[in-house]
Amino acid sequence: MSAPAGQQERADTAAPAGKPAAPAPRAIVQAMKEYHPPLGGRGGMRLDFNENTLACSPAVRAALSAVTTSDLTRYPERGPVEALVAEHLGVAAEQVLLTNGVDEAIHVLCQCYLDETSEILLPVPTYSMYEVYASATGAKIVCIEADAADFAFPYERVLAAITPRTRLIALANPNSPTGTSMRREQILEIARRAPQAMVLADEAYFHFHGETVLDLVGAAEYPNLVVARTFSKAFGLAGLRLGMLAAAAESMHWLRRVISPYSVNALALACLPAALADTAYLDWYVEEVKAARAEFGAVCSELGVRTWHSDANFLLLAIGPKHREFCRAMHAHGILVRDRSNDPGCNGCVRITVGTRDQMRAAQDALRTVLQGL
Ligand SMILES: *Cc1c(COP(=O)(O)O)cnc(C)c1O
Which of the listed residues 277, 298, 317 is the one where a domain comes to its end? Predict the structure, then answer.
């Protein structure tokens, strides 16, 4: 539960009588939206966090085994690995910033561009960490709700919401928890219409979709375009905490001031080249997920469960009023799924990560049984 703004102390942190109280954080922190990762008891098949459900490339394990004591004793140097990533992606080395997951990238963007006088535009429902980090800056959070009928990107309304105070626009493409995507031209038009704002294209699920605006990072027409990619999803490295931003060199200069110099650790840096090089593994996994997504979607519609078109490695299911019982029953059948009912417009919706076809056949069996018992 978040404490109301201005509250001096929370009941669970109040000092016992006679003892000095801990200093209260600034009001903005007290008003911040909290994030509680529902990570406890994740036994079962983890279809709740959109991770790779199988494993990272075996080449990554080999790279980890080759890590030396000297690698561990030295402060990690991300520059050389950034250069390698830049080359892999076809952008200039100074345009790439490796981060401790995309979460840190979002944090750094918010710290760099937002304050109490600014606004962040968020088409919702969307990834929750934008709001968490933005709220820590005191910026006004302007949410633009998608039409729940199809969760299509509310493009016209996003354009209409741009003001001179708009400093950041976060566009998850494909979006989570809906799986819907926006068109490249829509992102670019938003960037042109909001030159006073950084426009983040968060391409966390890029591999399952295949469309990007990365090729325009650094282009003269789009100095405000910034692209995020993560190694947590398709690459299967969520535990290593590895993400990146690509932006024009001028913006990178500011972002590098704000980020912790050693936030990407030595193990992550040691593994990244191997992960990038094994394109065969990545391609195989992505194709497997896409095939499983089609199969699982077809089973949902056969069972009368509505899903939305997804360009990512998950599907949003319209379960209805019994969404809580559904999640519990799926868990009892060994399948973890994520209740998204509290997201704007998502009442009764549950998100399920798509893994391999074998895994999703087990999930289908659980789905059939659970739906019968609801
Ligand atoms: C999972 C996710 C992230 C976070 O990725 P990390 O690199 O693990 O921090 C960022 N954006 C979106 C849209 C996501 O779904």
Answer: 277
Q: What is the pTM for the complete model shown?
A: 0.94
Query: Does the CB atom of residue 355 touch ligand 1 within 6 A?
Result: no
Provide the CATH number for the domain around residue 156.
3.40.640.10
Distance 303 CA to ligand 1 centre (A): 30
Q: How many domains does the chain divide into?
A: 2
pLDDT of residue 339: 97
Alpha-carbon distances, residue 286 vs 213, 280, 290, 314, 364 (angstroms): 20, 10, 6, 12, 20
Residue 289 and residue 271 share a domain: no
- For ligand 1, whether the C-beta of 178 sits within 6 Å is no
Write out pLDDT tens, residues 31-58: 888 888 777 778 899 999 999 999 999 9
Alpha-helical segments (H) within the chain: 27-31, 58-65, 69-73, 79-89, 101-113, 129-135, 155-161, 184-193, 206-209, 249-258, 266-277, 279-302, 323-332, 357-373
pLDDT in tens, 255-267: 999 999 999 999 9
326 touches ligand 1 (CB under 6 Å) = no
Expressed in angstroms and rounded, the spacing between residue 249 Cα and the centre of ligand 1 is: 23
Q: What is the mean pLDDT of the chain?
A: 94
**Ligand 1 proximity of 172 Cβ (cutoff 6 Å):** yes
pLDDT one-digit tens code per residue, 69-81: 999 999 999 999 9
- Domain extent for 310: 45-50+280-373
In the listed set 277, 310, 338, which residue is the last one of a domain according to the structure?
Answer: 277
| Residue whose tokens read 């039409």 | 147
127 lines ligand 1 (CB under 6 A): yes
Ligand 1: atom nearest CA of 242 is: 7
Instruction: Give nearest CA residue, ligand 1 atom 12.
Output: 204
Please tell me whether residue 327 adopts helix, strand or coil conformation.
helix
For 85-119, the pLDDT digits (tens) are 999 999 999 999 999 999 999 999 999 999 999 99
Residues 6+ apart with CB under 8 A from 1: 34
